[in-house]
Amino acid sequence: MNDADVLNLARAAGLSHEWTNAFGQPMQVAPDALRAILEALGFPCASDEQRRDSIARLAALHDADRLPTLATGTVGEPIRLAPMPHLAGMPYRIELEDGGHVDGRFPDDVSAGAVLPALERYGYHRLLVANETATLAVAPPRCFGVADTLTAGAGSSPPDLRLWGLGVQLYSIRRSGDGGIGDFSGLSALVRSAAAHGASAVAISPVHAMFSADVRRFSPYGPSSRLFLNALHIDPAAVLGADAMAAALAGLGADAAARYAALEQDELIDWPAAASLRLALLRRLHERFVAGDAGGDFEQFRRQGGDALRDHARFEALHAWRVGHGESGDWRTWPAGLRDPRSADVEAFAHQHAAEVGFHEFLQWQAARGLSGAQKAARDAGMPIGLITDLAVGADNDGSQAWSRQAEIINGLSVGAPPDVLNTHGQSWGLGAFSPHAMKAQGFGAYIEMLRATFAHAGGARIDHVLGLTRLWLVPNGASPQQGAYLRYPLKDLLRLIALESWRHRAIVIGEDLGTVPEGFDTQLAQAGLLGIRVLMFQRHGARFLHPGEWPRHAIATTTTHDLPTIAGWWQERDIDWRARLDLLAPGQSESDARHDRARERGELWQALIETGNAHGTMPASDQSAPVVDAAAAFIAAAPAPLAVLPVEDALGLQESPNLPGTVDTHPNWRRRLPQTVDRLLDEPAVANRLAAMNRNRSFKES
User: Which of 2, 47, 426, 596 has the highest Cβ tally under 10 A?
Assistant: First the structure.
């Protein structure tokens, strides 16, 4: 089959043959790469017969002879459906979610598309036409916003409302008795302390479910499922009490308590050791729970969790059984009967291993209690937002979500990124992506359940790589990232669903929009009320750092992110130390060049801090970062952003960052613990002064 036919099929499937790289250069995707991606999407084209079949399948997805499973709309605007001739002149009824209905009749001419009247109530309504039904997801015009957190029950808020919060890697929180991994009890203590210092929110690293049978996989951005929670963040003492925990720990051996205490003292998390001990302890507590009076709360949680909870628990049990017997943990290599969550073989396995399945349901119950308890602690302490959770861009292709949602998640492609300034070879993250075609065909059900899981125990959510709402760079398994291509996603539909769920949960939404951003995308996000992210080091016009007043109002302001140097680390060139050591400097750049450039940038930043009144006097030496950290915190706080977020690493003036992109084992990614316990973390004089500066500059009112 010729290349022109491949390109035509690719366009019909939503793949971009051409794109513009980070340097503004036009690029093209090779036809062979498109063939591989089309194959994975379910539209093979190795022959003319396959191409015709693929075209027919694409046409069937846009069948004009039936209503869509779900259509989205906006409050106050007519809802436009695709041209469907069979609807001409047909009567319809819209049953509103909260009661009542709207009756009407389609016009006799629907060649330009069928139009439904504007609805004034948001929600999931039902459209009935003859024997057909469709869901109408009608969203507010924008997401729930920062100002709405105060107006919800207290009248109008000031137009220049400016709140601030902290950002923290949850695993890094240190408290006495945590066994070496930050937990939800530590998070509860942190939000109470942060609230006492004036914070309105605490943004946390992803808490998605990981692989309990493979504790070597601990990157929070490579989860097994984004529908459930990481059981390793459960505080064992919160399950049945401190006495029960001590008894369970004693039952694990004479040295278990000593090992548990020793793990708390490490500067870096020993994930295999700490996670194995935590899970063994939780298993003991589960046995004690089952032997006692289990109570009705757990059973209610299981009922509410439904098929999704059951599937995840069964996957965890299956995965552990396979790994424990020396077999592959990748479900895609399992016997056919175990690859299908609805098969008789899976049902039989679950019956035979009911106790193990129940254990993993129990873990999810305890994790949900812990996270919801931290959000309650935040609200009780006066935070209008509270926790801001983090939705990873994807889940691992061999994990629970990919296994249980095979109809919606593409098998054979990985989410990644094309080559750019920081990653010249591109990236392939091994994460599965939703198929935009399957999403529409399935009524966006898997996407909606993921949004609800993200918002369930929080006052906000950060969407990682929010560019994925409009397009994702997808790479065939085993291929180079350069052999990927952009796949188009239904942006308007996804933004409406996010807005609808954000209002139903009364939660703000932040989108990580750093990287190669399509023209006009930031405007679309702003119009949808989805806040972008602006980072101090990137807010420049040429060599000049933009002053806070020049920052946008439709994005949060922050000093750094988990993938970038801390302010102290940047000032002291710690990031250059690491990149030089690991041969990660930009192509053609020497270490001396990098340090020369950094010296110039330090001067430019200090000049901006001086000009804005956030710093004074002579520029500190490169090994004297404390005054710069102080000034940087005050600097971002003065921006007109509705929310400023200070990562706890910068609140503490730490040099090391949580993650160094492009590394796996050569840098201690996702392992660093905070230097002080949470009970005194924010009360150190230097830290308290930085938080006080956040309060002062956040209360600034324009004339």
Answer: 426
